[in-house]
Specification:
The protein is mainly alpha-helical and about 70 residues long. It is built from 3 helices and 2 strands. The mean pLDDT is about 85.
């Protein structure tokens, strides 16, 4: 699956970057549907970064999470 391979490769690059950078907090804003499913696939692979990651379909909720102290 070419798309799945691309998502895994992107997540692997994120893991490599995470070893060089301090922790980042990442909110992914995406519409529901296929894009959301693909973002969830990336999120699963990118968990190794140790970065707090969250997928959102609501922009206000994403900003609220980014501004909060809770990962």
């Amino acid at each position: 699956n070419i798309l799945g391979d691309a998502i895994r490769e992107a997540a692997e690059r994120n893991v490599e970057i995470s070893r060089l950078r301090p922790p980042l907090r990442i909110a992914v804003l995406i519409d529901a549907g296929l894009g959301f499913g693909l973002a969830r696939m990336w999120e699963q692979h990118a968990q190794e970064t140790g970065w707090p990651l969250q997928i959102f379909t609501d922009e206000a909720a994403a900003w609220e999470w980014l501004r909060s102290d809770v990962p």
